[in-house]
Specification:
single chain; alpha+beta; YojJ-like (1; 2 domains; 54% helix; 13% strand; elongated
Amino acid sequence: MLENIRWQDFIDIAIIAFVFYRILLLLVDTRAMQLVKGLLVLGLLAAGARVIQLEALSWMLGRLLGVIIIAIPIVFQPELRRMLEELGRGNILRRKQAEERAAQLSDEITRALLYLQSQHIGAILVFQRTTGLKDIWRSAVQIHGAITHELLVSIFWPGNPLHDGATIIDKSTVLAAACYLPLTENSDLSRWIGTRHRAALGITEVSDAMALVVSEERGEVALAINGHLSRQLKENQIRRLLLHYFSATATSRSVLDNLQKDLRMLWSSEPEEENDKKS
């Protein structure tokens, strides 16, 4: 049987796998992605039922899959139209475009943080990851605006009604401002660690989010992630963290290794005590 395999077959399989991969990327964060997951579960159940010869269950799941596949073009017409439009623009083959957008968003946020730092304006940015934070931001002031340097600075500018609280960001928009976060329950923290930093730690203890904090008194940027606080971040470290967050290729092993190296370097130094509870 192996002698019937041609070298063209490997190219054929690779192209099909690549096309399916790019299609799945287009479905990320859409309703259709949940359908794909459901179909995979049903497919695995049907295969398992066939293997162990559960005839009735196998028959029922086969018919159910057939009905769902027929209903897909009707129920998910908007998503399919968007996917075809993206295909027509050639975006399925444009990895560079995603990398450029990640760099642009990283630059916008880094510039905002550095400006707030230079002006000693306190701020806290929370970056939503796989754990949804809707329970927190739906009761705050919802923005759903583009991520720009000007918007972030204006939110935290003294006197702005939105500056007192956290701003939550996902991978494409500023979701909400004036969000109140749960405080950390870590009793081992120095009593000089202020409320803003305790809130940043608290949200990272109950979710996989990460938070960047600008200290009003010390004029420094700190990172809270996985319930751990790292202070005195430099500009290149901030950019690297944000690129990891926004980049569509952040799952590559080299990027993860570099990020973990940076975090180990940050965590290896013990933070100095802050001089003011408001930081």
